[in-house]
Write a structure and sequence with these properties.
By secondary structure, the chain is mostly helical. Helices cover 67% and strands 7% of the residues.
Length: 193
């Protein structure tokens, strides 16, 4: 997913500040992609230089600091966005979740800490799911495509949550089986002449 075209798409709705763009992408598209401020502002600068967006400074009464930069899509930006929409999408699905990268290596660490992190992540996924349900309700009347994307976010979050609960139970069962085997060995050792 290209940040450039995500920004152009969001600016179709209304002009936005860089912070608002980042916040919107994270909150509503987080199941597809994550970004940081280090990516947003260089892209905005480059897109402005390419004539795809325009920028005006906005002074907010009662706020200290420099004026905010409000970005809008230009006609050239709309044309570039339409061209991008008409192209075929990249083929493969990319799943990026920092927890899952860590999870795959838990076998090299302490099992107790892995189980703690799984419990922590369950809380994270549950909070995300609540937020996604809220987004789903908020986007209910925002058009079919937006509503369907919000629905995908909910479904993916539910799958992650169910899978992690399953993984947690598997690990707890494995731990219990090992403890039972160790106890059986101790009893057997005691009973040897």
């Amino acid at each position: 997913m290209s940040l450039k075209y995500s920004i152009l798409g969001l600016l179709h709705y209304k002009p936005m500040h860089g912070y608002r763009l980042k916040e919107h992408i994270e909150r509503n598209f987080g199941h597809m992609w994550s970004i940081n401020f280090g990516q947003i502002y260089p892209n905005l600068k480059k897109m402005k230089a390419e004539g795809l967006i325009s920028m005006r400074e906005e002074v907010c009464e009662g706020e200290k600091g420099p004026p905010r930069k409000l970005y809008s899509i230009t006609e050239a930006g709309k044309q570039a966005f339409q061209k991008w929409l008409a192209e075929s999408a990249e083929g493969s699905m990319i799943l990026r979740d920092p927890f899952l990268m860590r999870f795959v290596f838990f076998g090299f660490g302490e099992e107790a800490r892995a189980l703690e992190q799984i419990e922590e992540q369950l809380g994270v996924y549950e909070k995300q799911l609540a937020r996604r349900y809220s987004n789903l309700n908020r986007w209910e009347h925002s058009g079919t495509y937006v509503k369907l994307m919000a629905d995908l976010g909910v479904r993916m979050n539910e799958v992650f949550l169910d899978w992690l609960k399953h993984a947690q139970q598997e690990l707890l069962n494995s731990r219990q089986d090992r403890a039972t085997d160790e106890n059986a060995e101790l009893v057997e050792e005691k009973n040897r002449p």
